[in-house]
Structures are given as C-alpha cells and as structure tokens.
What does this fold into?
Amino acid sequence: MSHALCIGILEGGASYHTFALADPRFAPYFARKVYLPELRAADLDDLETLVVADRLHPGLLRHHSAALRTFADQGRTLIVLGEVEAHTWLPGTHWEARPTNFWWWLEGADPGVRQRSPNHPLWQWMTMPDVTWHYHGFFYPPPGSAPLVALEEEGQEVGLLLYEDRVSTGGRLIVTTLDPIYHHGSNFMPAATRFLENLLRWVGSG
It folds into this structure.
C-alpha cells in the first residue's frame, strides 16, 4: 500500500474544504475524510498521518484536542494548517498576530518570508515561491523544533510560518500559519495550491 493512502483529513464541510477535497490533485492522498463535528478517536485508528484542514472551528478543535494529541503521541504525524488557533490546543507553541497584507506583490514589497533548514527533506519538494504569500501571524515553536519558513521584520527573525516538531509528542507535528485549502477552494492565491500539493507529495513520499 502506498504511504499516501494512510493519510486522512479532518475537515469542516465548508465550501472551500469540499472544493479542495474533490480536486483530483489532492483526493488520492486522503484515505479518509473525517468531519470535525462528528470526530471519534476510532476514526483515526488506521491512519499514519492526519491533516487538520485550515480554518476549522477552534472551539471544536479544543474540544477534540485530547484525541489529536494522542494521535501524535502514538508516533504518528499531525499536520496542522493555518487559522485554527493551534496555540490554544497544541503543546508548546505560542502565537503572535500580524496585520495581513494581501497585495504585497502588487506593491513591490518584501513580505519577509525566509527559508530555514535548507537541507531538510521538505525542500526536495517545495520551493520558496510556494511558501511566499501573505500570513496572519507567526509561531514561537517549542525548543528543538526544526524551523522551515521564518518571518523577518527589519532584517530580524521574529518567528516561524512553518516548522516541524519532533520533541513535543512521541510523533511528529508539522505546523504552519498558511491556509492553503481556503485559498485553493476560493480560487485566490495560486501559490497556495502549489504549497498544498507539494506538502502532500512530501508527506506522502514517506
């Protein structure tokens, strides 16, 4: 069985979730689609990786946080996409909001997005243009996490937009501020589609 077929996704039934999950580029990666309001821990038993879709209801995620953390503690991979208040239910991470500049590329601005850990396996699949779009804030991750995409302000790193954490649980957390499913499903921000596809290709590669 392909490693990719052991990936599931936790989704909320929003139009952008439905649109993205029906896309043939992404659908083959998801062995199971789990509707967040009806989540049972048993729904996750045979999955190796779970993607927590962006823009899910944070209150529901907090309600189910024990099941999600147990999933990771059992040596599995939990991928947490943006705008889900991850800092309120994931271990060890802190968040700082920033105003969102949706039009930085039209203004000729430098958004301050920077590559980190260039030898990390992610970068065999991902390019910097895939991760360089607007952001809503940044994380201070747990010590020992692998930084992947950082945000700089006035030449100084202030936090991370994407990181991999193998220290806070018995498994792996991949956490980002980016919300690619929303943007792909809204037909806004082509880089978001590339980001999601390449993220799944990396994780699905084993």
In short: The radius of gyration is 16 Å. The CA atoms of residues 6 and 47 lie 5 Å apart. The chain has one domain: 3-204. The mean pLDDT is 93.
